[in-house]
UniProtKB/TrEMBL annotation:
Residues 169-301 form the Spore protein YkvP/CgeB glycosyl transferase-like domain. This is Unannotated protein. InterPro entries: YkvP/CgeB_Glyco_trans-like (IPR055259). It comes from freshwater metagenome. It holds the Pfam family Glyco_trans_1_2.
Length: 310
């Protein structure tokens, strides 16, 4: 490809960030949609022209006008549309669904894991999930002023392990998410969702935030976006174990392997079990610098410029 005359920085790149979520109201309940919006905002802060495109628009002729199409790979595959621009694939979830022939259609592939066993096979480079520290911040709410033990997430068609285990321990968990009616009593369900604008305050104010992963994502090191968001607010966090979690968060996030370990974490003195406020704030500050969408946007822009300059 001939090097464009503007590539030295005189013209911003035009980006479309494609999500697996549908358009309209249904897509508003997909975490992928909000992930994409935070990324688009970061791209714009770096002078780029960027927008979110739902899965229905992935192969629209309008993509021919884009310099870069970035596909956030979740539940559904997208085939690049031939055109003047470049196509990037960022595997942020469900890595088991990505086949070699799919990855080969893209100009570059990124994966939200440092430990994905198939990275070499697919030519994928690590690019972990991220947070928006302008929203997810310790200042979002007063610490320990909200739910005592909080879980935000849908059932995904199963009795989520961390909620199941916490309830088996006798813990009172405030659950927000869809699909919980088949597993919980009505009084245990606080609501079907937390509005995304309210999520930072929900995490920052909680006594403890619970997290878990799909088993294959935990095994392959695809760390949950919830970990980055909650850590950025200074919350106490308990998660199932996942490959690479300590590499990113150190020991400030408490993990459990067996139900009895979770019971000990949730029933003991929090001052003894969890890092103190100062340590959690230090982690939040580090996450804001090292794992922000602005940082990820910078890496993506650099790669796009390199590819366009070939």
């Amino acid at each position: 490809m001939k090097r464009p005359a503007w590539l030295g920085g005189s013209r911003p790149l035009q980006w479309s960030v494609v999500v697996a979520a549908p358009g309209g109201a249904a897509g508003e309940q997909w975490g992928d949609t909000w992930f994409a919006r935070d990324l688009v905002a970061a791209l714009r802060r770096r002078g780029q022209l960027a927008k979110v495109v739902s899965r229905g628009g992935a192969n629209s002729p309008a993509r021919d006008d884009d310099d870069v199409v970035l596909v956030l790979r979740g539940l559904r595959a997208v085939s690049p549309r031939p055109g003047k621009g470049i196509w990037l694939l960022w595997v942020i979830s469900h890595p088991e669904l990505v086949e070699a022939d799919e990855a080969a259609r893209f100009d570059a592939v990124f994966a939200a894991s440092e430990h994905w066993s198939r990275s070499a096979e697919l030519g994928a480079r690590p690019l972990l999930q991220a947070t928006n520290p302008e929203r997810f911040s310790p200042t979002a709410a007063e610490a320990d002023s909200g739910e005592d033990i909080l879980f935000v997430g849908s059932t995904r068609g199963e009795f989520r392990p961390v909620v199941r285990d916490a309830l088996a321990c006798g813990a009172e968990v405030a659950v927000y998410g869809v699909g919980w009616e088949q597993y919980l009593e009505p009084g245990q369900i606080r609501g079907e969702f937390v509005a995304n604008d309210g999520l930072p305050a929900a995490y920052a104010s909680a006594g403890v935030v619970l997290n878990d992963h799909w088993s294959d994502m935990a095994a392959e090191g695809f760390l949950s976006n919830r970990l980055f968001d909650a850590a950025a607010t200074g919350a106490r966090i308990v998660s199932d174990e996942a490959v690479g979690l300590r590499d990113v968060f150190g020991t400030d996030i408490r993990t459990y392997g067996h139900q009895s370990e979770l019971c000990d974490l949730l029933s003991g003195d929090r001052g003894d079990i969890f890092p103190g406020r100062a340590a959690r704030l230090a982690l939040a500050a580090r996450i804001a610098v090292e794992h922000s969408f602005d940082q990820r946007a910078g890496e993506l822009i650099a790669e796009a410029q390199r590819l366009l300059a070939r």
